[in-house]
């Protein structure tokens, strides 16, 4: 999962969109005013649709093995410690991921390693935190598995704890006196791709505009 996240973040698709892949991430960037409300709405819609399509695709390919009790559509459920512990764990890991993303993406020299660190944290959380909550951090991912498995108990945790944890982390980050003030809503801000969030235009895209303006001025 960590390697998949890294691959998607640094893919051309991920570099173009920002590779949120998570409604909680998008809502946090919306609260920070790094993404427009209209764009955020369609990002969240795409994330829920994408997660559902992914689960259905695996269900078709894996068949009954994916629905077996040992797998059960990989639904995220609270561990033996109970819902309260699962809620706290989800909030903490989500907050840890978000504050890492904000701190690195806002630093000029460290921004390019944001995706690597995010993938590393995901791998660490899967290994260490999964027994407590199933390691979701993502409402879309949890709903996509819960729907075909008909496992609705505890779903409220994955709709509330990740956004809450990320929003609290973002609120704490903006209060830091020595925080880096740069950054965008992209996890990897590739300079040769346009950005709908901060308005960045690649230098090569500016050349035709400059040439047309120069020609119009000369005429």
Offer a few descriptive terms.
219 residues; mainly alpha; Glycerol uptake facilitator protein; 11 helices; globular; disordered C terminus
The end-to-end span amounts to 57 Å
Per DSSP, what share of the residues sits in E-state strands of 2 or more residues? under 5%
Q: CATH fold name, please?
A: Glycerol uptake facilitator protein
Which residues sit in consecutive blocks of at least 5 with pLDDT less than 50? Answer: 207-217
Order of helices and strands: HHHHHHHHHHH
Measured as a percent range, the helix fraction is 55-70%
**Estimated structural class:** mainly alpha
User: Biggest β-sheet, characterized?
Assistant: none
- Overall mean pLDDT: 90
Specify the CATH class: Mainly Alpha
- According to DSSP, the number of beta strands is 0
Number of separate domains: 1
Helix tally? 11
Q: Tell me the CATH architecture.
A: Up-down Bundle
What integer value in Å does the Rg equal? 20 Å
Q: What would the principal axes of the Cα set say about the shape?
A: globular
- By CATH, the superfamily comes out as Glycerol uptake facilitator protein
Q: Could you explain how this protein is built, in words?
A:
This protein has 219 residues and is an all-alpha fold. The chain has one domain: Glycerol uptake facilitator protein (Up-down Bundle), CATH 1.20.1080. It contains 11 helices and no strands. The longest helix has 26 residues. The radius of gyration is 20 Å and the shape is globular.
